[in-house]
Amino acid sequence: MTTENFDLLVVGGGKAGKSLAMDLAAAGQSVAMVERGMIGGTCINVACIPTKTLVNSARLLALTRRAAEFGIDATASPPSASTCCAPARRMWWAPWLPASANPSWRPAWIW
Question: pTM for the full model?
Answer without folding.
Answer: 0.47
